[in-house]
Write a structure and sequence with these properties.
The protein is of the alpha+beta class. Helices cover 33% and strands 24% of the residues. The strands form two sheets. It has a five-stranded antiparallel β-sheet, covered by helices on one side. A three-stranded mixed β-sheet has the order 6-7-8. Helix 1 runs antiparallel to helix 2. It is elongated, with a radius of gyration of 17 Å. The mean pLDDT is 88. Belongs to the NifU family. Pfam families: Nfu_N (PF08712), NifU (PF01106). This is NifU family protein. InterPro entries: FSCA_dom_sf, Nfu/NifU_N, Nfu/NifU_N_sf, NFU1-like, NIF_FeS_clus_asmbl_NifU_C.
Amino acid sequence: MFIQTETTPNPATLKFLPGQTVLETGTADFPSAEAAAKSPLAKRVFAVPGVTGVFFGSDFVTVTKDDATSWDHAKPAILGAIMEHFQSGAPVIEGEAAPSGHAEHDGEDGAIVSQIKELLDTRVRPAVAQDGGDITFHGFERGVVYLHMQGACAGCPSSTLTLKMGIENLLRHYIPEVSEVRPVNA
């Protein structure tokens, strides 16, 4: 098994590509070791000292480390953990996977929220997945769109620029009711 690695815009995060499907549908975010209880793969990766976050996409695993840990030390151990997992035949997530994706929205802004989600799904999320992350809809209130940033996007130094210059401008261009975009923590 050959696992490729790619850097991301977040220097604390690397993207690992095992060359096979990680998740059939959606994404899974594990911002802590406690959150990884239902994922044998995430638990193995969190066993590597210095790992602070794990995120799964369709064909990648994004790993975030703390500032005190060097990639030179962590990367070989993470590669080993991912390889061991896929060779073990264990599932990536046990039982029902927690729903990932956009939050539900009830209210009179339903048509606007549908447009926001459509733009996120077609224009934003594919580009962000290339960088090892995901951005999902969290809410819309009085012209402000609230987005949840996951994987490499969470804590990325350039995420504010991505939100303000990229996503906010895109949404405001297509949806006049949108005045601002803000990040939320899960």
